[in-house]
Amino acid sequence: MKDNGYLDDRSRAGLHPIAELRGVSKRFGDVLAADNLDLSISSGEFLSFLGPSGCGKTTALRMLAGFETPTSGEVLIDDQVVNDLEAHRRPVNMVFQSYALFPHLTVEQNIGYGLRQQRPRLGKDTIREKVGQALDVVRLSGFEKRRIWEMSGGQQQRVALARAIVNQPKLLLLDEPLAALDRKLRKEMQIELQDLQRQIGITFVLVTHDQEEALSLSDRVCVMGEGRIIQIGTPQELYDSPRSRYVADFVGTSNFFEGRVTASGAGRATVVLKNGMPVEGRVTAEAAPAGEACVSVRPEQIRLSRSDRTGIEVVVHNRIFLGEHTEYLVRNGTLGDFLVLSPRQSELNDGPFNTGETAWASWEAGSAVVLEKS
Amino acid sequence: MRLYAIFVYLFLYTPIAIIALFSFNAGRHASQLQGFSLKWYGTALSNPFVMDALETSIVVGLIAATLASLFGTMAAVALQGVRGPVRALFDMMIYVAVMIPGIVIGIATLIALVTAFDHLNPWLAAIWPTQSAPQLSMGKLSLIGAHTMFTMALVIIIVRARLSGMDRALTEASADLYATPMTTFLRVTLPLIAPAILAGFLLSFTFSFDDFIIAFFVAGSETTLPIYVFSSIRRGVTPEINAIGTMVLAVSLVLLIIAQLILRRSDNR
After folding, report:
1. Is the Cβ of B191 closer than 8 Å to some Cβ of chain A?
2. In A, which residues are within 8 Å of B178 by CB distance?
3. Distance from CA of B62 to the nearest CA of A (A)
4. In angstroms, rounded to a whole number, what is the distance separating the alpha carbons of residues A297 and A300?
5. Which of residues 93-112 of A touch B (CB under 8 A)?
6. What topology does CATH give the domain A9-240?
7. Interchain contact A163–B (C-beta under 8 A)
């Protein structure tokens, strides 16, 4: 059931939803931590909640786990309303940000903890066998008798994963599981997580504030802000067709040019920028913005040129060499500063630009997106 | 500052050191050192009055420490779930219980129990089927009660410190792994706070074993070791008393050190 994020909404609707949020809100005192969340999680998919801290992503996850009860709305797992079902009765497992491994138990006892709670009781041999398999999956065979504090951060992470997947939950919830790891280990674990999900076919729900992590791992990403779901889509949809400035800004890097809409129709709109230049772009929201708007263009979509004097005249203000790319910070008198990411290939044609040099920035009409001003 | 500290420590510990030193005195007189001997320890340990008092002290200490650990742990765990003004009230009462001078606790407990017994005894006599109804009076039970009440506050403070240092995610993880709240308590919470409970038990025992002031008021006709020492001193300080004092000191110190080690070791994990 792996779709690699390329299923469109129609074919996705045919998949069986393993969990749903229906109009779910959660209030803590005066704070509305989750505001009317509607979401359907398909069986076998890898879904991420992405957003800055305090956006409600962890609250959403904790309501699925059963640690928080919604103030209103319904949480469904496997077509059953589970609002009042206690955490220990839910067929879901969680990997905690702090791992929450039991320090007084060995690796083996930690992983077998969930199995030992099952009724009717499982035999000792069955438990040992399943624990062994789980250790195998996370490549920690031979560490059975180790104590938790004898393990490195990355190993503890894998024990936490094994402890959750050994129970074959309907949903595996991951609360910023990689946040505590250093950058290199995090990359490795991201790949391992994705492999693991393909291998065991369990539905993964990940909470992260790291947009790169969400984009690289997930089939679908649910971008959240201020307790609400801002946009749900495949990583590519979110990147190419953000429906709001918030998403365009949070998913990847983007340049925003403000202006006024002068014409719109058929999924396109024309915006006159502050320097009087008309720019055409795609409209991704349901309706084209009227009046004030902004145009979002990704840095890698912008082409810098010396010879072709069309587009925006800029002065190269800063240059950062990134190997296969060069990042330029360029400045236009009226439009301000923006970023251009130029591949090595194009520099062979036009040569690298030096700081202080004048150049012309332009992009294809299809790569610009017209969004509400804020 | 340094000199000042030295004087404070000298002032505090010299009398204790002298008692320990003189307990090994070979001579009869407490004021004159006449060579090294262990004979006063022998005398003390073969004195039936001392052994009786020691037994009472140990029995009272063990029972009071056990009850205090049990109820103190229950209270600490229950208080974890309490928030707001109720929690503040309990916190205050616990600290007050530790800070109130022993003499106040002793007198207050005495008055409270005597008043209660005065009301209960006639009532008990009236409903008792036979003529010889039991009389409630001060004794081991009142002593155990008073020590339990006081040391429970110590246990609550120690166990609560451990509980609040515990990652809340651990109990959530246990629930997430299908464990009922009872299983979570028995298999996760209890093992993790066990060192604190044990340390609380040892401190409680030490307190009860050492206590003179509260015991003096509520022990009735019972004699604990500190009470025995106090009543003997009225007949003059003998090397035997020094030996008893040194033994009590040694037991207390050893238990306190063990309690500290347990707490420190468990914090490092």
Report:
1. yes
2. 88-89, 114, 117-118, 167
3. 28
4. 8
5. 93-94, 96-98, 100-104
6. Rossmann fold (3.40.50)
7. yes
- How far apart, in whole angstroms, are the C-alpha atoms of residue B132 and residue A9? 88
Residue of chain A with shortest Cα separation from B184: A88
User: What is the per-residue pLDDT across A276-292, written as a single tens digit (0 to 9) for each?
Assistant: 889 989 998 887 888 88
Phi/psi at B47 (5° precision): -80, 115
Closest-CA residue of B relative to A160 is: B173
| A311 vs A277: CA distance, rounded Å | 8
pLDDT digit string, tens, across residues B11-68:
888 888 888 888 888 777 666 777 788 888 888 888 899 999 999 999 999 999 999 9
What the block records as the tokens of A13 is: 């609707």
Domain coordinates of chain A in residue numbers? 9-240, 253-372
Query: Which residue from A88, A101, A163 is facing B175, i.e. has the nearest CB?
Result: A88
Domains of chain B and any CATH numbers = 50-267 (1.10.3720.10)
What is d(CA A155, CA A143) in angstroms, rounded to the nearest whole number? 10
At residue A327, φ and ψ (nearest 5 deg) are -100, 125
Name residue A264's amino acid: S
Cβ–Cβ below 8 Å for B176 and A98: no
Two tokens, residue A207: 């909470």
Whether residue B191 and residue A104 make contact (CB cut-off 8 A), yes or no, is yes
Sign of the alpha-carbon torsion through A170, A4, A225, A210:
positive
Domain A253-372, CATH class in plain words = mainly beta
Task: Determine the residue of chain B that is closest to A163 in CA distance.
Answer: B177
Instruction: Answer whether A90's CB lies under 8 Å from A202's CB.
Output: no
Decide if B170 and A94 are in contact by the 8 Å CB cutoff.
Answer: no
Closest CA to A148 of B154, B188, B112, B158: B188
**B135 DSSP assignment:** P
Give the residue on A whose Cα is nearest the Cα of B190. A104
At B269, the amino acid letter reads R
A69 touches chain B (CB under 8 A): no
Q: What is the ipTM of this complex?
A: 0.81
Chain centroid to CA B53: 16
Tell me the C-alpha distance between A55 and A36, whole Å: 13
A9-23, A216-230, B121-135: segment of lowest average pLDDT: A9-23
